[in-house]
Fold this protein.
Amino acid sequence: MRIFLSYASEDRTRVEPIRYALAEQGHEIFYDREDLKPGEAFDSRIRAAIERSDLFVCFLTPNTVDAGSYTLSELSVAERMWPRADGRVLPVILADIPRKDIPAYLRSVTCLTPVGNVTASVSDAVHQLARVHSQRRMRKVAIWAVAILIPVAAASYWLWQRAAVSAKDGVPLVRIEGGVFTMGDDEFFPLREVYVDPFYIDAVEVTTSRYAKFLEANGSLAPPDEWEQLDLEKGGDLPVVGVSWNDAQAYCQWIGRRLPTEAEWERAARDSDQRKYPWGNEEPGAGRAVYARDAEYAYKGGLERVGSTEAGRSREGVYDLEGNVSEWVSDWFTDSFRIDDVRNPKGPPDGEKKTIRGSGWHEPVDRIGGSRRYQASPDNRTDDVGFRCAMDSPR
């Protein structure tokens, strides 16, 4: 602790042993005005020493309160520094002095009247104050730490939530912020405002290598259409196609997730600003989407590995929402909607066909767009339809 010793020069010999005892306790002591280097500004140096101190010890004798004593000037600096003297100022009575002569500032706290060994009494009192000071400092540090760490932790959590995280099957998941957004375009579906909760969605479509593990774990399932055309060693990063809605749903459940709702898919694909494409409103082109491919088989020239179209990535980090493969979503298909189905809408409770969103590798450019939607039987399998999974976001 930094301690300023204030005393009358006539009392120097009585204060000096106390100075040594406090220094041995490990305190930093400003003791003697005579120690100032020649040329230093006397008043400013004293004031600076008091201002940087943790404790002001004032030794009271008749000499201290004499009208000409510089100690009174030091005391006025301390009073400006600490209007409340408690815990900051320790008055020590070294000689009998009428209480009325003690400055009012010092009378506001309990004065120490040493009994027996003066040095030991002062050292013990300072030790007790040092403990209190240390505890206060630790509390202050803790408060500041909490004040800093809470926003930092909150920011870190927000960044963690926003960033891609890895699911147990190794696919990156992207958190999509919840809120109100405009769904539809009045051409392919009625324009309306809906609300979705925050959710996670796969950053890329389910690949053949991931789906192969699903087949291995569930040996009774039939492989997708065109599976025999696939060289898994070379095409493990291609999106799986030839899967029915039932297949896609089974995979998502097996991995602990689910198919996204149509509203979630469109929120991921069109952001919250009604953009036409996941990347914005610029027309499709090289590097944005895989489309208009002329190939005999999806796995032989039709598809590209997932996540390869960096320029087509959504603002939030989701790839291939247009091009490569269209995607199953969870909803039953409908041409209309219930007027009250605007909060986390899930479509009708039943139906004949399921909804497909996005566009595939052989679609022409004029069939690419975030609001387009298709329908097919849950058992239907085609070479340009795949899927990705979603999951709820912890609140």
Q: What stands out?
A: The longest strand covers residues 326-332. Residues 12 and 355 are 93 Å apart (CA to CA). The domain at 163-392 is CATH 3.90.1580.10 (paralog of FGE (formylglycine-generating enzyme)).
